[in-house]
Specification:
Layout lengths: L1 E9 L4 H4 L2 E13 L2 E8 L2 E8 L7 E9 L1 H8 L7 E10 L2 E8 L7 E6 L13 E4 L8 H4 L10
Antiparallel strand pairs: 1-5, 1-8, 1-9, 2-3, 2-6, 3-4, 4-5, 6-7, 7-8
Organism: Winogradskyella pacifica
Protein name: CYTH domain-containing protein
Length: about 160
C-alpha cells in the first residue's frame, strides 16, 4: 500500500504517438489536507475512491489505498468535493519494464503536462524517454490536490 513514484514535466507531444492507452479523467477531493488526501475519480465509466498519506521528505513515497466504486457513486461524491475539479487525459506509454502515465490537463490547468512512473523501490532504475523533461518529484505545486487550489493558469510562467 506504499506508492513509490517519480514525477516529471514533459518536453513535447511525442509521447502521444507512443501511447498504447488513453482515457479521460475527472477528479475532485473530499479532503486535500497534505497529511491525508481523499480523492474521487471518474476514469471513463469507472469510479475510484483513493486515500493518500503524506509524502516522505524526498517526495518519492507515500501510503495509497484505492477502491473501485460505481460510476453513480463517483458522480454523487464529486458533488461533495472541495471547489476545483481536475479534468485531464491520461496517456500510458510503456518504456522497458515500466509504464509512464502522462497527464494532459484542461480547464484551469490547461498547458500543464506531467508524467509519472511508479517504481518498486526508491532506488530502482528506469529508462527515461526522450520527451521527459525536468524532474518535479516532491514539488508540491504539481500535486493534483494543490492544482485545485492554485491552478496552473495562475502560476507565473
Amino acid at each position: 500500500m506504499i506508492e513509490i513514484e517519480r514525477k516529471f514535466l514533459v518536453n513535447s507531444d511525442a509521447f502521444k504517438t507512443e501511447a498504447h492507452t488513453s482515457y479521460v479523467i475527472k477528479q475532485g477531493f473530499l479532503n486535500s489536507d497534505k497529511a491525508r488526501t481523499v480523492r474521487v475519480r471518474l476514469k471513463n465509466d469507472k469510479g475510484y475512491l483513493t486515500v493518500k498519506g503524506k509524502s516522505t521528505a524526498n517526495g518519492l513515497s507515500r501510503f495509497e489505498w484505492e477502491k473501485e466504486i460505481s460510476k453513480p457513486e463517483a458522480e454523487a461524491l464529486l458533488q461533495l468535493c472541495e471547489p476545483g475539479i481536475i479534468n485531464k487525459t491520461r496517456y500510458e506509454v510503456k518504456s522497458n519494464n515500466h509504464v509512464f502515465e502522462i497527464d494532459e490537463f484542461y480547464g484551469d490547468n490547461e498547458g500543464l503536462i506531467v508524467a509519472e512512473v511508479e517504481l518498486n523501490a526508491e532506488n530502482e532504475s528506469y529508462k527515461k524517454p526522450y520527451w521527459l523533461g525536468k524532474e518535479v518529484t516532491g514539488d508540491l505545486k504539481y500535486y493534483n490536490s494543490l492544482l485545485i487550489k492554485t491552478p496552473y493558469k495562475l502560476w507565473k510562467h
